[in-house]
Task: structure prediction
Amino acid sequence: MKTLLLTICITTVLTLSEASAVEFSSVEVAGKRVTICRVNVRKEKLQMFHRDEAGQPFKRFERLTAWLQPRGQKLVFAMNGGMYHDDFSAVGLLVSEGKQLSPLNLSNGVGNFYLKPNGVFLVSEAGALVVESSQYPRLRDGAVIATQSGPLLVQGGKINPALKPESQNRFRRNGVGVPSRDVAVFAISEAPVNFHEFATMFRDTLHCPDALYLDGAVSSLYSTNLQTQTKRRPMDLGPIIAITE
Result:
């Protein structure tokens, strides 16, 4: 096994006022920049968006923005929030405004979602959590939002053993970690990284004992405040996790 040199450097992207919904920063992992989005879930309301009232998937941040406008809401932060099938239905659990839109998926299969253990990110009255999927049923009461994805990157302070340091499976990736019940930390890489590098960043730099991979090639970020967003081809998305005002 070859030795992997993992270099991590923390820099500030911009300083925002206390009124801002998200605190942004950046880190470098093995020379690759990763944008960090820190949300205090006690102060900000995270929401899950998937389909409109006609059952049509939003797919793009622009369409969600247009849908929100006549409802007196403005999209200020958004990120793709879970994996989906070809028809844009969620592969696993999806909860929005306390209502289950898609059930928990504990089956086996092929692909990143099924790389066990996989997990659930949820926010309830107890705060933010990332848990292994089979633990969700005992925690579901009071869940306001939840999304299931896989694999778990970090569980109980330990990197998922299925994630190998020498892996050449590199993609632009995004995920979410929970350093405390009060905070959810979203991260999106600006260049391809492997799972182990991404997981190590969550554990050692962002101090998240639990972290979940959200997706890869479609990873996308929307922010009205972030001045250094990466310009990239718009991608069709499934579930979207967001903050509005």
The first helix runs from residue 61 to 68. Residues 38-174+193-244 form one domain. The longest strand covers residues 32-40. Residues 1-19 have pLDDT under 50 and may be disordered.
